[in-house]
Each structure stands twice: as structure tokens, then as C-alpha cells.
Amino acid sequence: MIKSVDNRAWFLVLPVFALVAFNAIVPLMTVVNYSFQDSFGNNQFFWNGLGWYQELLDPSSELGGRFFAALGRSAAFSLGILAIEVPLGILVALCMPRDGAQLAIGLVIMALPLLVPWNVVGTIWLLYTRPDIGLFGWLINAVGIDFNATKNAAQAWFVLIAMDVWHWTSLVALLCFAGLKSIPDAYYQAARIDGASRLAIFRYIELPKLGRVLMIGVLLRFMDSFMIYTEPFVVTGGGPGNSTTVLSIDLVKIALGQFDLGKAAAMSIVYTLIVLTVCWVFYTVLVTRDSQTVERPEVPS
Amino acid sequence: MSRRIIFYAYLVCLMLPLYWLINLSFKANVEISTTMTLWPAVPTLSNYAVIFTAPEWFDGFRFSLTYVALNTIISISVALPAAYAFSRYSFLGDKHLFFWLLTNRMAPAAVFALPYFNLYSSIGLFDTVWAVALAHCIFNVPLAVWILEGFMSGVPREIDETARIDGYSFPRFFIKIFIPLIASGIGVAAFFCFMFSWVELLLARTLTNSKAISSIMTRTVSASGIDWGLLAAAGVLTLIPGALVIWFVRNHIAKGFALGRV
User: A12, B85: Cβ pair inside 8 Å?
Assistant: First the structure.
């Protein structure tokens, strides 16, 4: 759509700008301010310059080592769930009925995990996987595998990833389903006339149409999984040991547990910058793709 | 046929943990900790009775639903004009502004927890529904703008121009003609705002003094251990608002995803 240039449009954006700026800029400045200072309690602050940042980015220091370990865990978690949720979401979307009562029931069930409060998601999986009272943990133990997510780090990771897959695959599947529905029947008819195989139909008709929704899905899932806090906090509390202490959990431990505001603030800034950089790349790709599509598809996208 | 099997297997996997939660909520703690049964051998409503007779549980639900509703109303009403501006005009700094808005959707809540506490304490809103409703705007407003902009771009510009020629003023055109045209988009945006505000815990807990339902749930943990049955019953009750919302929009879920910025 060709947009007309009119700077008065700023008046329409002003309420949003004011509201978000109030919520974003004041707290962000507080964090920046803390990150250059040290505190020994009693609300006394001392200038520390770039000290915290130097310590944070130096893997050999205590804080730096801790930060890079947590960063690694967060990155591993995000990559892990993306590697499962995206293919699984596409598969489920391809398997969904196109219409009818089955679809309606399926959609309601699929949307249900998305509306469960995050602490309750943690609670559900805690109750489900505990070896003593959980169906899943009990079953695994019953077949002879010793399963206890509070003791074994690998099993704790398994529970966290299974939980996230349970929680969010539906979002990817629903997005893909919407993308698939926007493909006109004529495309499939043409493919049938050409004698295209099922795989070829997926590769050359469905996948290109899914590109955009997948981009949105990956972007949303990356943002939310990289800053995940509540669910692992409820299920594993970052343990056993520190094995599932992802960035957010470590950050809250430092900020609210030890009240090391300077360290936590410097960590927050670096953390936010990482998220922003990755999202900026995604966003740029998304916008570039959009501007390359000359014609809008049938369904406004 | 194998497609249907995969689909139903997926649905079963989704339902199992939920079933287990519901199952535990109808069991007494003795049964939970001593036996493993696929359904309650002695079904009991005692866990629910505890919740319904204690006023703080009821207040927690009311408190949480109030800030969710307020947040949805605020988010949608400020996002509507902004989304219109982004979809119809190009103006100084529009692309940067749009990305800046989205960055707030990306900012980790853990980063903002402590500064939010300071900010909302200093303006005297700490421990009120307004604090949480306003704080949740940081991720819901950008999302609402993003979704609504997608829907608005699907409405042809000619409609705006025709209305102007017919003598409609901008506010009258916007309310009388434009909003009905994107009603489904508003529904989708409201659904997402409701969803993200309802499921968020960290900010809601930081900005209130144990009033939100999510913090009241931590009361099931006491010195004598965790009250599993009570925890499960509370979990089941928190599923209800979400399930109700899904039930109301069940015919629009697929359509909503398809018509939006998808």
C-alpha cells in the first residue's frame, strides 16, 4: 500500500508513545544508572564506572564465568525448543483437518495450553513428572528407568524442553495452519495435474507460503524462550545445582536474592542488548521480505 | 488417515498433563501421596472447598481478572489510533518507532522487575490493579499495534477517501465506519492482550503485595511441605478464564490467525 507522508500522524501515535515510554525509559534509565554503581546497602551508592561490565564480559572472573554459563544455557534452551517446535508445529498444521467439528474441537484443545498462566504451567509439569505423584515420572520409573528431575540434570533439561514443547508448539502450529489456509486450491489442482509428489507439493507450494508465518513464529518463540523465567523457576528452581539456571533466573537471583544491584543491572543491559540484536536481525529479514513481495496475497498479511 | 492419527496423538499429549492436574485436584492428599491411581478412588471436593471458603483466594481471582481487563481496554484503545497511523501514513521516524515499540515486547521482564517496583512505588500505585495493568502495557501495547496494523492494512484506502468526500470527520469515520470493518482484528488483538496479561507472573508478583492469584498460589507451600491437592485445585481454577475465552472465540481462532498479520 502506498502511504501518504503526513507528520501529523504523530498525534495518533502519541498515546502509545507516552505509555510505552513511561514504562520503558524510566526503568531502563534506572537500570543503566545502577549498572555504573556499587552499593553496600543502606541506599548508599558509589561510582564504579565500567567495572561491572569489565567483570561481566571477562569469563575468568566469578561474575563473568557465571554469566557466560547462564548465557550458554539460555542459548541451548532456545535452540533446543526451536529445533523441536518448528518442525513439529509444521507437521501438526499439515495433519489438521481443514474444517468441520473435528477442527473446532482440535483448535480449542490446542489453544488451551497458551492460556494457562505460566506459573501454573510449571505446576502442571511439576505434578506430572514427579516420580512419586506424577503420571509421567511414575510411568518412566515403572519401565525401569530411574527418573527424578530434581536430582538428574539431563532429566531436568528433558522436563523443561518437554514442558515448553507442550506449552508453545500449538502457537507455531496455529500460525502455520493459518498460512496453509491462505493457499488457493488452484495451486493444489495445478500440482495434481503436473503429477507432483506429496513431498514436492510441500517443498514448492506449502513451504514458501509458510516462510512468513514461520519467521513470526520463530521470532516470538525466540524472544519468549530466551527470557523464560517462571516455568523453570517453578519446576526446577534452576537446579539441580545450577544446571538449569538460565539467564533470567540468574538475574533475579543476583538482583533480588543477593541484592547486588550493580551486577544485576550490568547483566540486564548486556542481556537486553543480545535479545535486541537477534530480534533486529529477524525483523530486518521480515521487513525486507515484505517489501520484496510486490503484490499482497489474497489474505492480507 | 495417518495424518489424523498424528493429529489425535498430538491432542492426547496436550491433554495428558491437564488431565493429571484435574485428577489430582479431586484427590485428598493422603491418596495422592500413598497410591498411584489413574482416577480418584475416593473423589473429594475438599480442595475446592478450601479455596471457595477462603476470601483471599476469591479476592486473588478478582484482582487478577480486574488488571487483565483494564490492561486489555487500555492497550486496545491506545493501539487503535497508532495502528491506523502506521498503516496509512509515513511520517518522521515511523520505522524506528515501530521497531522501538517491538523491542519492548522483547525486553525480558526479569530486567524490569526491580525498576518497576521503584517506579510504581514512587508514584503511589504500588499494590493496586493500575500498577499491574499499566506495567503489562509494555508488552501488550506493541503487540496490539502490530496485530491491528496488519488488519488495517487489509482495508482498502479508498474507504477512507470515500468517507472523507462524503463529509465524515476523522473521529466519526474512525468510530462509525473503520472500527466495525476491523472488528475481528480488535477481537484477535484483545484475545492476545488478555492471554499475555493473564499468564504473566513476574511483574504481577513484583508490583503487588501478594494480591495476584499467582502469588496466592504460593501459599500452598508451607513448612509441612506442599499441599499437592490444593495446588492442583487452584491450578484447575486458573484454567477456567482462559478456557472460557477460548470457548467464546472458538469459531474465530483459525480465522483470526488467518486474517491477522500472518
Answer: yes
Q: Which residue type sits at A206?
A: E
- Categorize the per-residue pLDDT at B259 as very low, low, confident or very high, splitting at 50, 70 and 90: very low
Of the ranges A170-184, B59-73, B133-147, B201-215, which one carries the lowest mean pLDDT score? B201-215
| Contact between residue A252 and residue B116 where contact means Cβ atoms under 8 Å apart | no
Per-residue pLDDT band at B257 (split at 50, 70, 90): low
Q: What is the largest CA-CA distance in chain A?
A: 78
Ranges in chain B annotated CATH 1.10.3720.10: 53-259
Strands of chain A, DSSP E:
4-5, 37-39, 45-47
- What residue spans define the domains of chain A? 67-292
Question: Topology of domain B53-259, per CATH?
Answer: MetI-like fold (1.10.3720)
Residue (of B35, B61, B63) closest to B228 by Cα position: B35
The ipTM assigned to this model is 0.83
> One-letter amino acid identity for B147?
I
Q: Label the pairing between strands B89-90 and B221-222.
A: unpaired
Q: Using CA atoms, how far apart are residues A277 and B247, in angstroms rounded to an integer?
A: 38
Facing A20 at nearest CB: one of B17, B87, B142:
B142
Any chain B CB within 8 A of the CB of A177? yes
Lowest mean pLDDT among A49-58, A167-176, A210-219: A49-58
C-alpha cell at position B234 = 487452584
Comparing CA positions, the residue from A34, A109, A84, A128 lying closest to residue A217 is A84
- The pLDDT mean for chain A works out to 84
d(CA A262, CA A273): 17
Can you give the length of chain A in residues?
Answer: 301
| CATH number for region A67-292 | 1.10.3720.10
> Quick one: pLDDT band at residue A43, thresholds 50, 70, 90?
low
Q: How far apart are CA A173 and CA B262, in angstroms?
A: 12
Please give, rounded to a whole number of angstroms, the shortest distance from the CA of A193 to a CA of chain B: 23
Nearest to A120 by CA among B105, B243, B224: B243
Specify whether the CB–CB gap between B246 and A108 falls below 8 A.
yes
